[in-house]
Amino acid sequence: MEDDFFAQRDHIRESLAKGEVLDFNSLSPTAKQAALSLTEERAARLVERNGRLVIEGRKSNPFVKVLTAGLMS
Question: Which domains does the chain have, with CATH numbers?
Answer without folding.
Answer: 2-72 (1.10.10)
